[in-house]
Design goal:
The structure is a single chain. By secondary structure, this protein is of the alpha+beta class. It folds into 3 domains: about 30-75, no CATH class; about 85-180 and about 240-260, no CATH class; about 185-235, no CATH class. The protein has helices at about 30-35, 40-65, 70-75, 75-100, 125-135, 140-160, 165-175, 210-215, 235-255; strands at about 5-10, 15, 190-200, 205, 225-235. It has a 5-stranded mixed beta sheet with strand order 1-2-5-3-4, with helices on one face. Helix 1 (about 30-35) packs across helix 2 and helix 4 (about 75-100) packs antiparallel against helix 6. The longest helix has 26 residues, at about 40-65. The termini are far apart. The model has no long low-confidence stretch (mean pLDDT about 85).
Length: about 260
Amino acid sequence: MKTETIEIDPEDGLRIYEDIFGIDDGIEGFGDFMHKYFRPIYHLFMHYIPNLRFKGKAYIQRLARRNHLSDSDNWNACYSMAPGILKRLRAFRDFSQQHGHGYPSYFSEWGYEGCTDKYGGLGITRDKYEQAKARGVYGGGEMKGWHDALNEMIFGFEYHLYSDGTDKQRDSFFRRWSLSDPYRETEENLSWSYIYDTEDRSRMFCGRERHDEIQRDSEGLYGGYHILGKSRTYINSEEVRILAERAQKGMELFGKFYWNIWD
């Protein structure tokens, strides 16, 4: 049987756990025992078989219902709709890049290069155009601007689908967009998640601020706490915020130009 190496943080004396879901806290039930020593069998009966039943039920619901939607499709409608929308956006962008005939008026420039007409190509003076552009009526960029906007819409949907998906999906998403992985395991991204047991034997995870708060109150804020240890978490919160804001803007562009997604 594999011998487990116990790692202790010399600064605070807390045990460091690599697997926070397999913590041995001295009270080992049958489920804990199976997870610890027979993990493949544990996952087979606890995850894979129940998941097959869940998928089978959803398949039957899609066949039987007039709208062909299962309960799971409706529970997470924003997620279940996204792949279809993303597929169409990608196809439309590629089609527009190869055979595009136009773009929304928002992306219009005042006039063509070298234009000498007082009213450009929009029937307004350049000053009026610049004023309207400052108010957000125009954005300029013509076809390139339109394709850039479509790319940002695609980014928004991909972020929604993949940024919190499996490691493989997430890594592929970051590579595709030439982005730095905000979850990379570097010293600058390291933070700690503290693990507690409560009086009712439920488990609680918290960050450093909440951990310090509990330590200052020996009685605990919600009853007695017993600290088990901590685990490493890697995340660059600032990079995640920037990516989330970019994705949100992409979604807003989708709503703004939805009626213009045609050619």
